[in-house]
Design brief:
Elements (H helix, E strand, L loop, with lengths): L5 E5 L3 H13 L3 E5 L2 H11 L3 E5 L7 H8 L7 E5 L4 H9 L4 E4 L4 H18 L6 E4 L2 E4 L4 E4 L2 E2 L4 H12 L5 E2 H9 L7 H15 L9 E4 L3 E4 L4
Length: 231
């Protein structure tokens, strides 16, 4: 257990807390829990978790503030928890550095999948991720700026490639409209979501087998996009 990934769960719903602890402990993870934001921040500072699972509705402070304070000193993945009607809060937390979110209620397999993605992303932040991203028949070489679908090279414009590279380099993460526009275009364009719609359509036409039912570039309604790469 000493080498098991350490997950910190910050959630004031004891039923959720117990369920997550049971599920993750059975899978071999070390789990620490907190019911309040300040308690969670203290535990994070003293125990340095590999992943933080963070509820936005905490009794003592807003979950977005917890996310902001964590990002002042750690880059460990943060998975936020939220109810369906708090889309604005989810976007705010993602913009403040959270990596992913789960909507309550959620399934066990979904939770485990998000944890696996977070661990892979953590490894990539430490420089262990390959520069070649594969997603089905797609191959994206981030070092050589080459994109292939099967054996054929896909011709992309400079902006299309920059957008795809940003999505692929952060595969598995939910990227908000604002974060994509800021990183691919410019901070001044952060509210120009029409840019994204146009370029996402173009990318899907070039990369997806069925652009109307995308497999690689998924839409997170009202929030942003997520690129799905192979395991």
């Amino acid at each position: 257990m000493n080498n098991a990934p350490h997950i910190l769960v910050i959630d004031d719903e004891l039923q959720i807390q117990r369920a997550i602890r049971t599920i993750l402990t059975e899978k071999g993870f070390k789990v620490t829990t907190a019911s309040r934001g300040e308690e969670g921040l203290t535990l994070a500072a003293t125990n340095e978790p590999d992943i933080v699972i963070l509820d936005l509705g905490l009794p003592d402070m807003d979950g977005v503030e917890v996310c902001t304070r964590l990002r002042e000193w750690t880059q460990c993945p943060i998975i936020i928890l939220s109810v369906r009607d708090s889309e604005r809060d989810k976007v705010a937390a993602l913009d403040k550095g959270a990596d992913d979110y789960l909507t309550k209620p959620f399934g066990i397999e979904e939770l485990l999948a998000r944890v696996r993605v977070a661990l892979r992303h953590s490894a990539s932040r430490q420089g262990t991720q390959s520069k070649v991203i594969r997603a089905g028949s797609l191959m994206i070489d981030l070092a050589w700026h080459i994109v292939k679908r099967g054996d054929e090279e896909v011709k992309l414009t400079a902006t299309e490639y920059k957008l795809l590279a940003y999505l692929a380099a952060n595969h598995g993460r939910v990227l908000t409209h604002q974060s994509i526009l800021t990183n691919v275009w410019d901070p001044a364009d952060a509210n120009h979501t029409e840019y994204l719609r146009v370029y996402m359509r173009q990318l899907r036409k070039k990369l997806e087998v069925d652009p109307e039912r995308p497999q690689f570039i998924l839409t997170e309604p009202g929030i942003g996009y997520r690129f799905i790469a192979d395991e």
